[in-house]
């Protein structure tokens, strides 16, 4: 901006300011007559007396207030605790006794047949351990490894070789003694 434009703008601002002050000052010079104090008319007092006569006077002793609630008015018993975790922590269970393990394993199909009813159909030899495949009387196949159980009497697989599978069954006989019986399932011969 040039010097000439600045002087013109400052003059315009000055004129606007003077007009504003003059307008405000002229509004304040008007004198208004003071408001006269008028006494309230008599009929208003009569109405107040009528209202008072309609209303009954009550003492504070006759008014009974409801007692404050003695118990908590909010019941959160049906709500979920926001501070409990959503995931339940499982506690360590005691190991099952052998009798309980037997009842649980009875439900497995591999434990529902006698060991002599299984047929060995193949042996896979490997670097780590050997595996054998047997078929139950219903035609369902199972893969056996060393240490697995098979049969009604929980026979334990002791060895898997190219000749067959060795199983040891432990059971109690009629006299109450524990007996071990070695059973070998062999591959059928080719004809």
Notable characteristics:
191 residues; alpha+beta; SH3 type barrels; four-stranded antiparallel β-sheet; three-stranded antiparallel β-sheet; 21% strand
Structure description:
The protein has helices at residues 3-28, 42-54, 98-105, and strands at residues 119-124, 131-135, 141-144, 149-150, 155-160, 164-172, 178-186. The model has no long low-confidence stretch (mean pLDDT 77). It has 191 residues and is α+β, with helices and mostly antiparallel strands. Strands 4-5-6-7 form a four-stranded antiparallel β-sheet, with no helix packed on it. The protein has a three-stranded antiparallel β-sheet with strand order 1-2-3, with no helix packed on it. Strand 5 (155-160) and strand 6 (164-172) form a beta hairpin.
Task: Draw up the topology in text.
Blueprint: H1 3-28, H2 42-54, H3 98-105, E1 119-124, E2 131-135, E3 141-144, E4 149-150, E5 155-160, E6 164-172, E7 178-186
Antiparallel strand pairs: 1-2, 2-3, 4-5, 5-6, 6-7
Structure described in brief:
This protein has 191 residues and is of the alpha+beta class.
Along the chain, the helix and strand elements come as HHHEEEEEEE
Runs with pLDDT <50, length 5+?
Answer: none
Number of separate strands: 7
Helix tally equals 3
Q: Supply the helix-strand structural class.
A: alpha+beta
- C-alpha end-to-end distance: 118 Å
CATH architecture title of one domain: Roll
Highest-level CATH class of one domain:
Mainly Beta
Helix content: 10-25%
The Rg value, from CA coordinates, equals 53 Å
Gross morphology: elongated
Strand order of the largest sheet: 4-5-6-7
CATH topology value of one domain = SH3 type barrels
Main β-sheet description: 4 strands, antiparallel
Q: Output mean pLDDT.
A: 77
Our estimate of the beta-strand percent is 15-25%
